[in-house]
Amino acid sequence: MSYQNWGPQDLSAPAKAELPEVPVERGMVLEDVQSGWVGAVTRVEKSGGMYVVALEDRRGKSRSFRLGFGFLLEGSPIRLMPPAPRPAHTPAGGGRTASGSLRVEGQRAQVAKASRIWVEGKHDAELVEKVWGDDLRVEGIVVEPLHGIDDLTAAVAAFRPGPGRRLGVLVDHLVPDSKESRIADAVMASPGAAGNVLIVGHPYVDVWQAIRPAVLGIEKWPVIPRGVDWKTGILTAFGWPHSTKEDIGLGWQKLLGAVRTYADLEASLLGRVEEVIDFLTVP
Length: 283
Hints:
Number of helices: 6
Helix content: 25-40%
Largest sheet: 7 strands, mixed
Distance between the termini: 77 Å
Strand content: 15-25%
Strand order of the largest sheet: 1-7-6-2-3-4-5
């Protein structure tokens, strides 16, 4: 027994046991112990000499909290720290973006060009932005989610592709004899598509699967039975909340938070995105 601990104590102070110090990152899902508020990190800012983090819950509501003690990450207590400092700028040619390309220092984002990258949904757009965002801003290329490709033929016609107005489309589950492949064939047969539209795809049911399993600490992605919503099945297999759209959104933010660079993604997605960027930027 230690007699040094006798006497008045501040019971609100953190325990002597050292908690893991975790730098805050966007997309990280946290729980504030005192209030029970659970949400994904959407913003970190410094105000009045202290850091404040905004947590957005499954209903889209946001609350702000001071960094420090009192947070749970994946059920474990942590000390939430300010964002990790970015590496110091290196001489020209030394820095690299998340996509692995040489970073262009000091250059402002270009005014958006008429050409576009279309992806199937919000999650696809967020993943492309996280890895290739720096490159795309230099090139002036915007990524837009389609929310499905069932009406892709009409959407391409309305876009009116042509020289200087090209369109690259990234499609989920683009495999032979699939619905997606038939839609792609119909689009490419439409007027103005040849030479101005490029449709590429990956073999995965959803872009979630383009994240390498090892990055998530698993051997392989769970196999979801037919008839079960794929994303719901994945979250169920992980033991994460899965009953609402908000649960799915928060689950995706946890997955996206594990992605740091292109090395965290499968080669079959990397090659297709690079192909689209080349198509839109090479004269």
